[in-house]
Design a protein that fits this description.
Oligomer: single chain
Region (Disordered): 73-95
Keywords: Transferase
Shape: elongated
Radius of gyration: 26 Å
CATH topology of the largest domain: Rossmann fold
Strand order of the largest sheet: 1-6-3-2-7-8
Number of strands: 10
GO cellular component, one term: mitochondrion
Structural class: alpha/beta
GO molecular function: succinate-hydroxymethylglutarate CoA-transferase activity
Biased composition (Low complexity): 83-95
Number of domains: 2
Length: 280
């Protein structure tokens, strides 16, 4: 278990989170695979909490650190809310209904609030870092490093710590290269440049307007017909054999992209957005 000996001016338990079931109930006395693993959870909203919830389900001891004044953002995402259960601690009776969204990705964890912008709060988290096996966070990339909780900071406190970051804009290059490599390995296709365009759907890319750009995607023939007739004012496009089907549009990509671009360049984005509104 986690041990913490410090002044609690920047630290308090905000609530427990509901237990799914005991390991004995799930596995008939067999210890869960991650029993004894201590995880410091600095994530919020969805992606990070889902990851740490799965670790908690597998038996890890997860301490979720939440914002001091309101907790995780999803605590306020109501409705729907979950009814209070009879086993709720008396100390939580003053709390508002619990968000079903929050509960859906935070079961089997323990929650605390810590203001780690304050020195005493940062000290508390450093103590938890020292006791933890894994730290998971989904702050803006590099944010925690400015607060004394980056990987280099935490590694000095606990050299064995596994530090996992889930960001909105992660290492996309390696993810893209993985797809390129598998495409070549399986299909024997060498990568080519498409810019913002989709390799197998046309039109599906960014187009220039008089004052900027619009992202337009016609994922099927019905949508392309609407685009040609209602937006571009060129109904003949959807019946032209060169553009009538997606296969044909892909084969004649450059010609069609030029036709669409030439039309869109005649008006600004606001004009075109008004034309798109309500078409579905």
């Amino acid at each position: 278990m986690f041990l913490l000996t410090t002044k609690l001016s920047s630290f308090r338990f905000i609530s427990y989170t509901r237990k799914l079931s005991s390991s004995n109930e799930l596995l008939s006395g067999i210890p869960p695979p991650l029993q004894g693993i201590k995880i410091l959870d600095l994530t919020r909203v969805l992606a990070g909490p889902t990851a740490t919830m799965l670790l908690a389900d597998l038996g890890a001891d997860v301490i979720k650190v939440e914002e001091v004044t309101r907790g995780d953002d999803t605590r306020s995402w109501l409705p729907p809310s979950a009814p209070t259960i009879s086993s709720s601690p008396e100390s939580s009776s003053h709390l508002p209904p619990e968000s079903a969204y929050f509960l859906a990705v935070n079961r089997n964890k323990r929650s605390i609030t810590v203001d780690f912008k304050k020195p005493e709060g940062l000290e508390i988290l450093h103590k938890l870092v020292k006791q933890s096996d894994i730290l998971v966070e989904n702050f803006i990339s590099g944010k925690l490093a400015t607060m004394g909780l980056g990987y280099e900071d935490c590694k000095k406190i606990n050299p064995k710590l596994i530090y996992a970051s889930i960001t909105g804009f992660p290492g996309m290059k390696i993810a893209g290269l993985a797809n390129i490599a598998s495409n070549y390995l399986i299909a024997g296709k060498e990568a080519s440049r498409h810019g913002t365009a989709h390799p197998s759907i046309v039109p599906y890319q960014v187009f220039p307007c008089k004052d900027g750009y619009l992202m337009i995607g016609a994922g099927n023939n019905k949508q392309f017909k609407l685009l040609a007739e209602k937006i571009l004012g060129n109904p003949g496009l959807s019946t032209d054999p060169k553009f009538a089907t997606n296969d044909a549009r892909v084969a004649n990509r450059e010609e069609l992209v030029k036709i669409i671009s030439d039309t869109l360049l005649k008006q600004d984005r606001e004009h075109w957005l008004e034309q798109f509104t309500g078409l579905g």
